[in-house]
From TrEMBL:
Residues 28-47 have a biased composition (Pro residues). It comes from Melanomma pulvis-pyrius CBS 109.77. This is PD-(D/E)XK nuclease-like domain-containing protein. Residues 165-426 form the PD-(D/E)XK nuclease-like domain. Residues 75-92 have a biased composition (Polar residues). The lineage of its organism: Eukaryota, Fungi, Dikarya, Ascomycota, Pezizomycotina. Residues 60-74 have a biased composition (Low complexity). Residues 18-92 are annotated as: Disordered.
């Protein structure tokens, strides 16, 4: 016990200095060194790269890292104190702060909306969910592919564990494998399935999931069901115009605010390659109204954007994905609200109006867009809409009604193709044969009027 007094003195010294967050590790030696200490080689410098630090624009101020101090009592005992220094805020805390940001973003379960939806948004939400449910009931795999899928050696093991239900096949589709488009569809589905398998087995990173699985999937959905109206856009490196970002208090200066910015991975644009949209974009440029989206990119700022998709690898942070998707969708809707107000002002240029009538104006309440987060194989659907005329945005989801759609199986991939097809169909609806607008379509029923009014150049 002779060494106990010596250790006690060192503990007392450590306690006296431990409140200092700048404390460094104690240089003291163990009280009873081994009789024959083995020589210790100097530790080489680490060759692994450090993790990328987020820019100040990417996170709330006041985020920080923990530092620790310690004192060695023996070769097996060390006391450690954590300094009260800066640490990183979690995505959940960011999401909580967004509820009181200016303008706010509120993410809630679909069964727990913070307040009743506007009538127009409720109508669109009901239409979209009904269409998604109907599309997934069956008939989402071309009947001409049944034998080829069931006999394909690359699918055999998977199908032995999860056979495809007979109702999944569309036997009214009379195409056969003599149709090159059908063969190409099967080849593309196989590539996606194999990419998802490799990403799952080897724990691949977000970039691999993005471009081995998700990008080919949405490209295939556009190819099969986009009717030439859509382009997929990779917006991973693109910034959002600060005018449409949420502002939160700056802890270092309470009287000031700062923007909370996150990026997302993919979205859709109304295609410049389609003659109808190309003509509209030309008219917008002639009217000096080229900036029609919420980004600062030279191309996508001049394209009308739709939806948002955030991808994470398996075991990725769901809350971080929701944070990124939420900020993107809120900015996108705020830009559309701004343009809708300009269009309304143009229509009402010669009229005197009560400002309070804006509350019920369709230009505010009719905007509702779906969005997705993808964690590995799992695709989750959300719905974003304006909850006030001041740019506050509510996002409901994930939609548990469609919780079991993933790229883990062949029928799952075909289900996702039809999910994306339904979302694109909602985003763009042509007029019926009698010239009436299709119910629920965001473009044909609403956005087209806004952009045509903007293109008139009277604002």
């Amino acid at each position: 016990m002779a060494c106990s007094s010596h250790s006690l003195n060192r503990v007392q010294d450590w306690l006296r200095v431990s409140p200092d967050p700048a404390l460094t590790s104690s240089p003291l030696c163990p009280p009873t060194p081994p009789k024959s200490p083995a020589p210790t080689a100097p530790r080489p410098p680490s060759s692994s790269p450090s993790k990328r630090q987020r820019n100040d624009d990417d996170s709330l101020p006041g985020s920080s890292l923990s530092h620790t101090s310690s004192v060695v009592l023996s070769d097996r005992t060390t006391l450690t104190a954590t300094g009260s220094v800066r640490r990183t805020l979690s995505p959940s805390r960011h999401l909580t702060k967004l509820r009181t940001a200016r303008p706010s973003i509120s993410l809630s379960p679909i069964t727990m909306p913070p307040k009743p939806l506007p009538d127009d948004a409720m109508t669109r939400l009901g239409w979209l969910r009904t269409r998604l449910g109907s599309a997934l009931k069956g008939g989402y795999i071309p009947g001409g592919l049944q034998d080829a899928i069931e006999q394909d050696p690359d699918f055999r093991l998977s199908l032995s564990m999860e056979p495809i239900d007979e109702e999944a096949f569309d036997h009214e589709d009379k195409r056969t494998l003599a149709d090159f488009a059908l063969v190409d569809t099967l080849q593309q589905v196989k590539r996606i399935f194999q990419g998802a398998t490799l990403c799952t087995q080897f724990g691949r990173d977000e970039n691999a999931w993005c471009f081995s699985v998700v990008w080919p999937l949405i490209e295939l959905a556009i190819k099969l069901h986009g009717k030439g109206k859509w382009q997929s856009e990779s917006v991973q490196s693109q910034s959002i115009n600060p005018l449409y970002l949420p502002r939160v208090p700056d802890p270092s200066t309470p009287s000031k605010e700062r923007y909370l910015f996150r990026k997302t991975d993919f979205c859709f644009s109304y295609s410049h390659l389609d003659p109808h949209f190309r003509a509209l974009y030309s008219r917008l440029e002639e009217s000096n109204a080229m900036q029609v989206s919420h980004t600062t990119d030279n191309f996508t700022s001049r394209a009308v954007l739709f939806s948002g998709i955030e991808v994470k690898p398996e075991n990725g942070d769901q809350k971080e994905a929701e944070l990124q998707m939420g900020i993107w969708m809120a900015a996108s809707l705020r830009k559309k609200m701004e343009l809708a107000e300009k269009a309304r002002a143009g229509r009402d240029l010669n009229e005197t109006q009560n400002p309070n009538t804006k509350i019920d104006d369709p230009s505010v309440t009719a905007l509702l867009e779906p969005a997705l987060t993808i964690i590995g194989n799992e695709h989750k659907i959300y719905y974003a809409y304006p909850s006030s005329i001041n740019g506050d945005i509510t996002i409901l989801g994930p939609d548990e009604k469609f919780a079991n759609i993933s790229t883990r199986s062949v029928p799952g991939i075909f289900k996702l193709i039809i999910v994306y097809a339904t979302i694109l169909d909602y985003g763009y609806q042509e007029e019926n044969e009698n010239g009436q607008e299709s119910e629920g379509g965001l473009w044909g029923g609403y956005l087209e009027k806004v952009f045509k009014e903007i293109a008139r150049g009277i604002h």
